[in-house]
Amino acid sequence: MEKLKQLDQLIRLKSTGTPEELSKKLNLSKRHVKNYIETLEDLGAEISYCRFNQTYYYKARYKLNLNVSLEELDDNNCFKTQGGRIIAGQIYNNTYQINLLK
Q1: How far is CA 75 from CA 69, 79, 80, 89, 93, in A?
Q2: pLDDT tens-digit map of 17-48
Q3: CA-only gyration radius of the chain, Å
Q4: Do residues 70 and 95 lie in contact, with contact meaning Cβ atoms separated by under 8 Å?
Q5: What is the C-alpha to C-alpha distance for residues 78 and 28, in angstroms, rounded to an integer?
Q6: What is the value of pTM for the model shown?
Q7: CA 45, CA 96: separation in Å to the nearest integer?
Q8: Proportion of the chain in helix, strand, coil states, percent, rounded to 5
Q9: What DSSP designation does 54 have?
Q10: Torsion angle, CA of 14/58/2/52, rounded to 10 degrees?
Q11: CA dist 36 → 4, 13, 32, 70, 75 (Å)
């Protein structure tokens, strides 16, 4: 989640650099960076890339809220847990809450 926060900050500051530079800043592969950008877009963010300024930017103002909770499961409830979705190598399910507020 720290990488997602870093990406959000760089986009808000319009200082991501090129995709190659951004991957170096975040110490991630370009594919992982693309996954994080797609995650933000899935949450409702409109993100574009400016070739002239060489940066990603939000088309509107957004605030990224990340909330995580942990709940102990007993053997019965363990099998009732819903499947999650992979976000850049991290799995979340309904115990993770990621919101992007416009």
Answers
A1: 19, 7, 9, 26, 18
A2: 999 999 999 999 999 999 999 989 988 899 99
A3: 16
A4: yes
A5: 32
A6: 0.68
A7: 19
A8: 35, 25, 40
A9: T
A10: -30
A11: 6, 17, 6, 23, 33
